[in-house]
Amino acid sequence: MITFDRVSVQYEDTAAPVLRDVDLTVDEGELCLVVGHTGVGKSTLLGAVNGLVPHFTGGTLYGRVTVDGRDTAEHPPRELADVVGVVGQDPLDGFVTDTVEEELAYAMEQLAVPPATMRKRVEETLDLLGLADLRHRALHELSGGQQQRVAIGSVLTAHPRVLVLDEPTSALDPTAAEEVLAAVTRLVHDLGVTVLLAEHRLERVVQYADRVIHLPGDGLVVCGPPAEVFRTSSIAPPIVELGRAAGWDPLPLSIRDARRAAKGVRERLARTTPPPVRPSAPQERPRLLRARGVTVSYRGVPAVREVGLDLHAGEITALMGRNGSGKSSLLWALQGSGPRTAGAVTVASPADGSQHDPGKLPAARARELVGLVPQTPIDLLYLETVKHELDQADAESAPGPGGPSARAILDRLAPGIPDATHPRDLSEGQKLALVLAIQLAAAPQVLLLDEPTRGLDYRAKSNLIRIVDDLAAEGRAVVISTHDVEFVARAAERVVVMAEGDVVADGPTAEVIVASPVFAPQTAKILAPLPYLTVDQVTAALPDSGTAS
Amino acid sequence: MSRSTVTAKPPAPGLVPDTRGRRLPRTLHPVAWWIWALALATAVSRTNNPLLLFLVLAVLGYVISMRRTEAPWARGFAYYLYLALTVVAIRVVFRAVFATGITPRDHFLFSLPHIPTPDWYAGIQLGGPVSLEALLSAATDGLRLACMLCCVGAANTLANPKRALRVLPGALYELGVAVTVSISVAPQLVQSVQRVRRARRLRAGRHKGLRALRGIVVPVLEDALERSLRLAAAMDSRGYGRAGTATRRSRRMTGALMLLGMCGLCAGAYGLLDATAPQLLGLPALAAGAALCVAGLRLGGRRVTRTTYRADPWLFPEWAVAGCGVLSAALLFSGAGFDAAELNPSIYPLSWPTLPPVPAAAILLAGAAGFLAPPPTASRVPAQRTEETT
């Protein structure tokens, strides 16, 4: 169905080619997973399938890409619209019309499908993706999962033979992501659509894949069945890491298979007590932030309802919950920059220990008490180079004589970012580090991160965990709002779960997330009822790992 | 989570026939509403008779209350009414302040303080006595303008503006897409500005001055640019602009035809509405302009291969609605069966205007659209957000 014949892609502004001599064949009806770190060319590979690379992005493509017998050199993306459907990361970016039904019909209108056929296909697609009762709704009022399903439906109506999905679930909460992936797998199984899927959070999709295309980062491509590719790949979901550590063969990819394979491991582990996930924190933990009865409403609609929260020095707290459950509103209210309808927030000043309400202080003083990194960190950046941004941060925060400069902080968080780089050219992880450095220049003791894991790959997430650990070790309180359960399992010691503006759970990570069917990490699901959360815990408890079977 | 598909569900409230069960609710073709409203506006332009003008407003009110939907654009008529009131008020106030056209036999109501103007400004008088006649004539003038405004407002209220754009001929399709995209992008831009402004506080950035502006404008523009690139890529991969191969010559030809046609239309409209213009400028120019435009659009549309999803049909109700509007305008223009002076009653001497029966009947005829059009589909959007059932 898709053939790459000695394909190399070279952009003008990079020295090395992004893809080198890629030979690849994807057969009809396969679900093919594309994995690799950020910036190794996943998007280039996917874009080459429908000719966006190089017709739209520029650059030079050597070799031949054929889809359903059509050469992308002779067919620009619009001429391939009836063969390849493309769905991007953020569904809202691709919407051309504003209601569900019209969006579904858009591609067909462009392809000049007769009206009667269009009508029929729209109805079929509405049923196929479970969108029938949303048909007249405006696109912007749908939830993220619904929007992404509409985006998939809107390319499906053209009856493409190939579906290309570039990180379709990266902006979604776990439930919405499940909903989208369930729809995708149904398409593969029921309609025989060939699917090419790139995804950071492999734990969600690895069990559905027929084949894995791994981009190790040197422009080459490794392709094969998942159980084989993951045996050696540099990037792997927890289930695979656990399988490797325990030496299971064949490598299980679904929770069900892994649980069956893990019987022996569970018996051995039952006799030991699980080692702690994170190094134990110092006993004395002064309270840094105290919030009582915090309420946020927008035009009378409450987003946060009378939430009480204490944050202690050296504590890393994960804030979880559906999209729209009030996580962001709470963080902004705690920082003092967002609206707060009622309630009190007091933060201990690091200088003299006096209590202040950051909402009543001027912005410059508030950020010395509580730092917040917003969901889109790039909103804070507006200068041309990294150096300008850092200098500006130093000027804005004016730290005491002993305070480190923003540059020094950045070098500690993410070494090796050159001064002259434009902030927009940084990777997601680097942007996050830059904004973090800017906020840390004011030396706040409480740090709030709003969905920092969005768009980060495994390596960047591990980096973030290291950074956050360091910050906690310095005696700061860190709150991270996130949907990523695997990240929470490794990074946080306390989890607060919100729903409809209320705090519905607050406690140690192990207690809160192990019991939950939605939030439990893979390791916990495989080893339940044993309270293990991460692969590292298991390897520590199994010194002779590899002999178990 | 897979959702169980609803197999049998009661018909949505909007899809059941109206109470008497004779006609299926559907939306009328937007062009029919526009023809109806513009014809009525043209009719209004002929008369100065306040009774007729109030009759027009009553007819508009009736039709709108009968046939408007629950959509956001359908709630806008009240704003047009406010705008109309403002127009009348401004006209009256200006007439009072710039006291012009006063004859000695007028009924004087009160006097504003007279402000002396310099010699080189002698033509205009500020302040002075205000007469009932001046105010009345200003008010009726304003009322006429207000009525025309309300006609346009009615069209906007009754016809879905997006569907109106969809009926644009193929050659203007790109224009329609650009408008639709910008309508949907505008709220995103506002959101983006709000987000960045809020984020500025996190850095304790300045709130005023050029630097603050830069801190907001740069991220917002970068965001908008990236977003528009992604939208362009998405549209490209969904087949937008397929097989659009117009030759240079045909493009130029289309442009020239359209430009000439537009000139003709403008001249024709001017000639038709201004009674003092030469006869040649009226209908002939209009017809020639229309013909040129049609030719241009045909030529431009030939290269476009595209179909329309659920195109609005043009059936009997469309003919009826457009027809009753045009008929009422034609009756007022023909001058048959009534004295043309009755359309523009004189206020010298002051007298109560009469209601000429034929024009009144013509305007009432336009009101027939209220029941000739099919009933609108009731709101199909449930009031509460449907929750995901998993």
- Beta-strand residue percentage of chain B: under 5%
Q: Round the mean pLDDT of chain A to the nearest integer and report it.
A: 88
- Beta content of chain A comes to 15-25%
**Largest beta sheet of chain B: what is the strand line-up?**
1-2
Distance between the termini of chain B: 6 Å
The largest sheet of chain A has its strands arranged as 6-7-8-3-9-10
Helix/strand structural class of chain A: alpha/beta
Separation of termini of chain A? 39 Å
The backbone outline of chain B, from C-alpha atoms, is globular
Taking pLDDT < 50 over at least 5 consecutive residues as the criterion, the unreliable ranges of chain A are: 545-549
Number of helices of chain A: 22
- Percent in helix of chain B: 55-70%
**Shape call of chain A:** globular
Q: Tell me about the largest β-sheet of chain A.
A: 6 strands, mixed
Largest interface, chains and sizes: A-B, 86 and 57 residues
Query: Radius of gyration of chain A, rounded?
Result: 25 Å
